[in-house]
Amino acid sequence: VDMVVVVVVVVVVVVVVVAVVVVVVDVVDVVVDVVVVVVVTVVVDVVVDVVVVEVVVVVVVVVVVEMVVVDVVVVVVVVDVVDVVVDVVVVLVVKVVVEVVVEVVVVVVLVVVLIVVVEVVVVVVVVVVVVEMVVVEVVVEVVVVVVVAVVVEVVVEVVVVDVVVVVVVVVVVEM
Questions:
Q1: 75-85: per-residue pLDDT in tens?
Q2: How much is the pTM?
Q3: Where does the source fall among the domains of life (predicted)?
Q4: What range defines the domain where residue 54 resides?
């Protein structure tokens, strides 16, 4: 707005100067021509300088605005990218934690199952050994009983034979 006012003032000044110059030309043609050339040159220089300054200011403002917009867009994009990266990292961390927890649970379950299986196997082995010992003991007792029975039977038979022999001998002697 300030630049527009400056341009308007410059244009008004130029118009006024030109009007004055026209009036003066009527009075002193040669002096006015020289003055007009000098004034016009100065005015053009000033106008060109002002316009160039305005253009430079506008260009700088546009460049700054574009830079700010680009910076804002870059910041927004960077924030979005950081957001996405954080989301991805969180998802990956959660995935890794879940995998580790699952693996730990699986290992714990396997260890518990292994312990239970080992305990069951130990119990079964102990039961089998005890049963075998009992069976062996029973078999040994049965064998002992059978052997004793056989020995007793043999002894009884021997005793019976002896008694028969003694009876036969006694009967024969008495005869």
A1: 555 666 666 77
A2: 0.34
A3: Eukaryota
A4: 2-174
